[in-house]
Task: structure prediction
Amino acid sequence: MTNEQLRRKLKEQLVERLNFEDLSADDIEDDEPLFAGGLELDSIDALEIVVMLESEFGIKIRNEESARQHFRSIATLADFVEERRPQTEKAG
Amino acid sequence: MTSWQKELPHQIPFRAVSSIGSPEEDSVTAGSLISANDAGRDFSPDFWLVEAMAQAAGRMAFGADALPGQLVAIDRYSVEQPPVIGDCVALRVKALTSLGNLHRFEATAMIDDVQIASATLTLSPPGGSP
Result:
């Protein structure tokens, strides 16, 4: 999966899991802030992203500071997933 | 008074669970007997079930330290069959993940091994809501 495909998948997952009613994956910019000043997600939404990373990509994250750093935008989230997911998946 | 009763801050009539097992690594079981006393109040099975799930989850998240907790979010709550007076509901609560002081749980309610409800709950300590 390329980084671009990964970004698309992350956007679709966010729309589905966070029940965005008036927003589609196409409406989310890669560099748009996910929290303040952008999509205005809150800490419970961040927890949903943690669950999504674990169930979809097998990536566990427990540290708030790490989440704050990597959950800034779809672009930073995709880079984080790409860096952390198993090598075999990257090849596929 | 058993240990779970000491750890759970809810007292009758706000105690929705009738028993809570010892928490395992990432899950806990509990029971909720829907008694005739509940009919005297404005009994809402939906409310009662989710409250019972939250109380069991609270024991997992905060019980060891006997700290109070609060339910800050309910997601994907689904009731396939509302319980009625006389039902003994078996609850199973599984810890999904935590981030900071937020804890996410997946809960199911069963009667006679048939699932009647499920929900995803988020708990935090007081003042720890978003």
About this structure: The two ends of chain A are 6 Å apart (CA to CA).
